[in-house]
Please model this.
Amino acid sequence: MNPPNKSGWKPAMNATDQDGMHIGPATVSGNRALMLEEPLSFEIGHAEITGVDLPEIDPAAANRLGGLERSDPIGLVGLSEPETVRHYTRLSRQNYAIDLGLFPLGSCTMKHNPRLNEKVARMPGFADVHPLQPVDTVRGALEVINELAHWLIDLTGMHGVAMSPKAGAHGELCGMLCIRAALEARGDARKVVLCPESAHGTNPATAAFAGYETEDIPAGADGRVDLEALKARLGPDVAAVMITNPNTCGLFERDMKAISDAVHEAGGFVYCDGANFNAIVGKVRPGDLGVDAMHINLHKTFSTPHGGGGPGSGPVVLSEALSPYGPLPYTARTKDGVVHLIEEESAESFSEEHFGGVMDSFGRMTAFHGQMGMFTRALTYMLSHGADGLRQVAEDAVLNANYILRSLEDLLHAPYADSGPCMHEALFGDKDFGGDLSTLDLAKGMIDEGYHPMTVFFPLVVHGAMLVEPTETESKAALDQFIASFRSVAERANAGDESLKQAPYYAPRRRLDETQAARKPVLAWNDPNLT
Ligand SMILES: *Cc1c(COP(=O)(O)O)cnc(C)c1O
Model:
């Protein structure tokens, strides 16, 4: 029998929803067929229940704690094994996931995670390695990291790569710390980093965290960086520019080489936010565009799970000018053409004659080598596609996004539809909506259609932005179904259909108060019997 409900928990869903709309007979459980409610484990569990049997404590072992052993139970609740399995399975069913349907979050690149990657990552030789094992026993793991580093250096045309950063934003920090170290090494106290207004919030945040002031780079009417305005702002106080390419409006920055040349001439460095590398992998090498540092989100471009599915991984590729300042461990191709793993013990042997300079690392980003599980998955993805396959990934991602852009531009404001084909994501705005409806209402309507909404209100340069990224892993049939739903909700929005204001109608919870959720999140459970 289930333990009694301690907190008097009541199902929030009823047969009558919050607007009094009658949707069926009441159920005692609060469940609606397969839509199951789930209380917190604290509400259904008990301290005296456990799913495991532990042996009585051996008094000799207790003595080893020197009298510090706990004397009272700490009151954590327990569940039996089947209850535990059901609890987490029910919670997992309340999530949207890439394995459930198309996940159109622009900039986030929610692509299918190939099962082959998972199979390889679970092989005991990869899954069971420990970073503190003797080096001689992890040669294979180091070889995997080196091989992946090789691919990243080749695909980007850069000098070397720091594999250790744990996500895109961590990679940005790594790149900016390299730039700061390079400037400090030449005694140059530049203070300003320039970022376009359309930049991801992590770019200015990273620059500020690394000790810089940030200023906006203006964009032209076509959604790209205004080269002349940028040139006019460059000067001896500008340490770096941070540019996303393809940018967050889904457009390729065609002037990238001219931008890099101008920044270098003014003595600064070019940081490229490489989160959108999936649109150009195999087609363009950032090294050829004059980029000095760029992070690559393995969890976006190279298909490793994220968004609740797994940790990120954000290797940073560096130019020859920045390589000497890279964090350890660091991997670079030296002048003999060989890719070397550089660690504390070997750093001193990398000098000017076979490296970009004398290795003068700014330090470490992490204790160990990085996200081994993601390295294994990303390398599996690369090897299973090959260089030609990766180029096709980029082409198909761009094709799919343009299909969406051209299928909706007659209905929705598409601010840069005339700036040429988009890259891997299509950008719309809510300018043509009727009544007081906004992008938020359309997004909630998409939930009723069974889709996770697209990225909304980003980038900031477009009113009520909707950024849609289908990725290359969606079939034409899946895109057509998505477009049909999107068109029907957009038609309602344009017509000022007030019913959209109450959406979602069919989700387990109706519309939440987003301000309260952000400002006053409830992060702790308080036992109502104690208060
Ligand atoms: C995702 C993303 C980032 C941050 O990457 P994380 O891996 O989430 O830290 C930075 N810039 C852009 C454009 C992104 O899409």
